Amino acid sequence: MRLxxxxxxxxxxxxxxGATLASMTLSAQTAKKPIALAIHGGAGTINRDKMTPxxxxxxxxKLQEALKAGYSILQRGGTALDAVQAAVxxxxxxxxxxxxxxxxxxxxxxNELDAAVMDGKTLKAGAVAxxxxxxxxxxxxxxxxxxxxxxMLVGKGAEQFAKEQGLERMPDKYFYTERRWNELLKMxxxxxxxxxxxETPDEKASSVKxxxxxxxSxxxxSxDKKRSALQPNEExxxxxxxxxxxxxxxxxxxxxxxGNLAAATSTGGMTNKKYGRVGDCPIIGAGTFxxxxxxxxxxxxxxxxxxxxxxxxxxxxxxxxxxxxVWKAAENVVLKKLVxxxxxxxxxxxxxxxxxxxxxxxxxxxxGAIFPDGTxxxxxxxxxx
Length: 385
Description:
CATH topology: Glutamine Phosphoribosylpyrophosphate, subunit 1, domain 1
Structural class: alpha+beta
Number of strands: 13
Oligomer: single chain
Strand content: 15-25%
Radius of gyration: 25 Å
Number of domains: 1
Mean pLDDT: 84
CATH class: Alpha Beta
Shape: globular
Helix content: 40-55%
């Protein structure tokens, strides 16, 4: 009887110790789950010799701010979705990038915004295209995902949804920047088939309020101004901001402590775009994609090529079906397939282990990342010093 009791106690102790060790191992594994974040601010012709140190520092500082905004959420145990949204908002609020406040002008001299988000855990997604007046399109895209049965809303319908959701809206003048206006003027002056606007959005709004006599007088006196307006500040657009031919988009991908991936992308599209043109940014699987079983991707480049190549999904599919790494898949798509098809641009891609790839086939791409070990990198040019 005593022997049986002793054996029972030994068994209980062994079971308890085993359970404790298993619990400690599980806790250690949980504590070691990686978090990571990568962002981009657009790829294109970005040359070091045409960028002043002050402007370069301005870009690097804003990229760092965006990284910190998203990463601080991950550090607190927040979701990857919240992290990518926070990072993108920082860039949407900056005039440096072609998204939100810094969006380019269309041929009709308006600012039409696109954005998308995707949850790698549930494969839910939200997107908006061709919206005006929305301060942060990425927030609207998130609301489409979380608060509607749809994936994509466009134009007036998306704006109505934004109003119903109480989203912050801004007047047209909020989106006006002299840099983007000059880019439009230059492009339209080079295109003889396109009428060049004579007034900025603010000038147009004020002229409507003038009397016919005042308006007539203004139009007469502005003829000479028009000639000078057609010649944008070359030094500002090419020397200080050497990314005139940049495919402007901002984006973020994140991995949270629960092992979930997410992606978000936002853009103002292409300068002088017509006919309600929409690029790859809000197209799920092209400019934005996330799946916990493979990776999260946010792209920047010539949208038509990225749509036809289904860039985001192609990278994920190569990982899922061929078993290649995120680096190999991303480089195969960006540096091989897109180049063969004539598509310029780049991506940021992140897998469930925290591995990050940021390939681009252009001379530069505004980009940054915080790796699982906590180290941060911020890069602009193809080859960093």
